[in-house]
Amino acid sequence: MTSPIRTALSVNLNKVALVRNTRHLGIPSVLRAATLCLEAGAQGITVHPRPDARHIRADDVRELHQLLQSWPDAEFNIEGNPFHNLMDFVRELRPHQCTFVPDTEGQFTSDHGWDLAADGERVRPLIEEARALGVRVSLFMDPQPAAMAAARAVGADRVELYTEHYATTFGTAQHADVLRGYADAARAAQSAGLQVNAGHDLNRDNLTAFLRGVPGVSEVSIGHALIADALELGYAATVKAYLGCIAAAEAGSRKA
Question: Which domains does the chain show, CATH number per domain?
Fold first, then answer.
């Protein structure tokens, strides 16, 4: 049996910036948070700079990009709506990955994936532009197997499965059926030639079960729960705990 791929952990730092922005003292430091997470073993850093700059700001994105030059094995993932401000960062910084998210301006949080029947032809040229700059493109998608071929057809390299429905049904009678739906979406994506990322409301309680149930996830991007845990445990212990969840899933898959 082939060993499962190693799932990378990318830490989303938006909530660190959100707390910092409530005062004018520069604390907590986004750069310090990134450094501590990387030192603890995180394989990447994610930010989602929204147009209203309510958490991550443009200067944060640039400073994190500079910081990551000292971490050549770590990945920088910038999320956002390509029709708002995301492409400005892609053109200027050329991060390792950009994740296209169909947020509206001022949206509270990401809460749905792309409808490629409606938006596919609009995003296609922007995907082509990002890839021409050497930037991998991931599309934030609902777990709909039938939509994965369309994501590949518009040029994406990866999809990020929106996992809130999994998180909200975790531990309920619906859990097994919902998890199978995510597994079906992942297999459909991989069959179409896409790699699979995942994110939104994954946490220490539900991450291992998700990775055991969904094959071949390349990366999980985790912010809210991880930063909340870090308030109690510290960045280093929290990152190591999440890496432990990933390792437990992989150990379980090997035994299976």
Answer: 8-255 (3.20.20.70)
